Amino acid sequence: MLYVSIACSAIPALSDVSYRTATVEDFPGILGLIRGSFDGVLREHGFFDSSPFASPKMPAIPQQGFPWFEMGLKEDNEGFWIAEVDGKMAGITLSWVRGSLWYLAHLFVSPAYQGLNIGQNLMERAMKHCKDPPITNRALVTFAYNPVSISLYARHGIYPREPLYWMEGPSQQVKTELSNSKLRNERAVDFEKSRSVLSRIDELTLGYPREKNHAFLFSLPSVRCHLFSSGEKPVGYAYVWQNGRVGPLATVSHEMFRDVLRSAFRLAAEGAPNVGIAATGSNEQLMQVALEQKMRILDNYLFMSSKPFPNFSNYVLYPTGAML
Ligand SMILES: CC(C)(COP(=O)(O)OP(=O)(O)OC[C@H]1O[C@@H](n2cnc3c(N)ncnc32)[C@H](O)[C@@H]1OP(=O)(O)O)[C@@H](O)C(=O)NCCC(=O)NCCS
Fold it and tell me: Which of 9, 107, 236, 320 is the residue whose CA sits 20 to 30 A from 217?
């Protein structure tokens, strides 16, 4: 009788997996793992060539280091976890908490270690991350075409709420006319001076203040915050990125949304060859404005939350999904 021995040492037993919180030394490895895992999903579902988030379209080494992971370590280390197999990084997660809102910024397992309960274990650790007061809502963005991640989150009580289309278009196509001639915009450079206006708009739009996220965006050289007003009244804000991306953007009323969005696209088009946005399917004005700029859908995502939220008719998400 012929016995065939199958080498199964590559498949780790659950006991071989260890979990620990992240450190500064992990940052380059975390970035590499996220990109490898991200590319794996894009390839598997046919979005690798079109998605602007495929690793060949990203800067090889981040010019400004890892400010996002640094903030995670400083503010949210209880939600920042690494899974290791034989001392090798196999998975990572990072959740952030602002007041009673919990948000899952990243959950990625390397393709070689997927399907071994590592994602489930990382998720459970991130879910325990809370501060004072208790968590009232949980939210995240995932791939619209990955049943593994969608079902993992749904089993933790976080449900699909909103389709997100990553849309981009050439800056020359951006339309400049506004219907409300009273709308003014001003670049905000000092977070402390803008703090109360931003918080008030967030309170009306999202119901949660996210001051630390605003302070973080103000600290980045690659993004500018613009405050919009009509007469003397603040009506919204928009973050405009050097690479032409827009978001987050919020307005106090749906009536102002279209003009604030058009103005943000106009500002974005001034310095970049393309403009881009995470368009929420239920926001008719957003879809109409994006289509009038001749923008095209390049990738599909899904917003999930434990309770219906936020009011997407007045709101545009951060352009990578890591922040709300
Ligand atoms: C999503 C991801 C984090 C999950 O981690 P993982 O370690 O592979 O997953 P786990 O082994 O813990 O659990 C996967 C579960 O999904 C289930 N599953 C697999 N395919 C499924 C499908 N088509 N429908 C429903 N459930 C499915 C598995 O059966 C398993 O559940 P079980 O343990 O009850 O059988 C990981 O696969 C990954 O990194 N994927 C690529 C990146 C990604 O999508 N990240 C999330 C974006 S925010």
Answer: 107
In a domain, 227, yes or no: yes
For residue 71, being part of any structural domain is answered with yes
CATH code of the domain containing 239: 3.40.630.30
Residue 253 domain boundaries = 168-316
Number of domains in the chain: 2
User: Residue 9 has what pLDDT?
Assistant: 47
Q: Are residues 177 and 239 in the same domain?
A: yes
Nearest to 15 by CA among 92, 85, 88: 85
Of 104, 148, 323, the one to substitute when testing ligand 1's pocket (max ligand atoms within 8 A of C-beta) is: 148
Tell me the H-state helices in the chain. Answer: 27-44, 67-75, 118-127, 147-155, 191-205, 211-219, 254-271, 284-292
Per-residue model confidence (pLDDT) at position 5: 34
Ligand 1, CB within 6 Å, residue ranges = 37, 41, 107-109, 114-120, 142-143, 146-149, 151-152
Mean pLDDT of 200-223: 93
